[in-house]
Design goal:
Layout (H helix, E strand, L loop, with lengths): L3 E2 L4 E4 L3 H18 L6 H6 L11 E6 L10 E9 H7 L8 E2 L1 H5 L4 E9 L6 H18 L3 E9 L7 H11 L8 E2 L17 H7 L2 H8 L3 E2 L4 E3 L4 E9 L1 H25 L1
Parallel strand pairs: 6-7
Antiparallel strand pairs: 1-2, 2-3, 3-4, 4-6, 5-8, 7-11, 9-11, 10-11
């Protein structure tokens, strides 16, 4: 995909193994050092977060060239897995927590998202907007129809997250034909509180920024939350049709193309 840049940051796919390792190191600092996830001994030895999916995924990176070149510049990351790659591999990460058969049966071009994080010093609106611009470019260039993946709420106590989970269930539950369901033995009921007891505006405002980003794009959630003790989180499965993503990117792409064409005409 083509890189996308703001005033001082750039977003693009990792170009080499060094940049992927830098993304894994960033994930380690955020997930394990900050959020209290439980690393394996192998991860501790290398100070990176790594699993089997890293070798087959595309790694979207936010880079700050002022920090240096290559891996030194990595300040944000997202892991992307296209349908055909996951099917060739034989599994998707989300399938470890959810029955994603409805998504697979839906057909079309889809991709799985995961392992999103941003360096603490760069957690602001502009960085998140640039990260989403990178996802939009990837979706546009690969003609992706649907995105899905596990999104995390902090902590492993569903009772403490009752307002979040109830709001997501009552107001953003995926259509039945497309709805993943938490696997038996992992399923945690999300309808902790009745719908009429919720303040939707307050509940939405209290959600993590990444989850709010999915919802603003018309995203849905699957049925059931899953407590992930390794990562010290409670996960929900998010599904997003890419119509709004593609529409916004196409408008930006068309506008940029016209501006370039206009400058070329003036220069000729």
């Amino acid at each position: 995909m083509q890189s996308v840049a703001s005033d001082r940051l750039e977003v693009r796919l990792a170009a080499n193994a060094e940049e992927i390792v830098a993304a894994q190191a960033l994930r380690y600092r955020v997930f394990y050092d900050e959020m209290g996830a439980k690393p394996t001994d192998a991860m501790v030895a290398r100070l990176i977060d790594v699993d089997d999916f890293d070798a087959i995924c595309d790694h979207l990176l936010v880079l700050d060239p002022a920090r240096g070149s290559g891996g030194k510049a990595v300040v944000g990351t997202y892991r992307l897995l296209r349908r055909w790659v996951g099917e060739d591999f034989g599994r998707f990460y989300t399938a470890g927590e959810y029955d994603i058969a409805p998504v697979l049966a839906n057909g079309g071009r889809f991709m799985e998202l995961g392992r999103s994080c941003v360096d603490m010093a760069y957690r602001n609106r502009s960085t998140m907007q640039l990260l989403w611009a990178g996802i939009a470019a990837y979706v546009f260039e690969n003609e992706v129809d649907l995105m899905f993946g596990c999104a995390s709420l902090p902590g492993t106590d569903p009772d403490a997250l009752a307002e979040h989970l109830s709001y997501l269930y009552h107001f953003h539950l995926a259509p039945e034909a497309l709805r993943p369901r938490a696997l038996p033995g992992l399923h945690v009921d999300m309808a902790c509180r009745p719908k009429d007891s919720l303040d939707p505006r307050r509940a939405l405002a209290a959600l993590p920024p990444l989850v709010k980003g999915y919802l603003r794009l018309g995203g849905f959630v699957g049925d059931g939350a899953v407590v992930d003790h390794q990562f010290n989180t409670t996960d929900v499965c998010v599904i997003v049709k890419t119509d709004l993503v593609t529409e916004k990117y196409r408008s930006h792409y068309d506008r940029t193309t016209k501006e370039i064409a206009s400058r070329e005409v003036m220069a000729s």
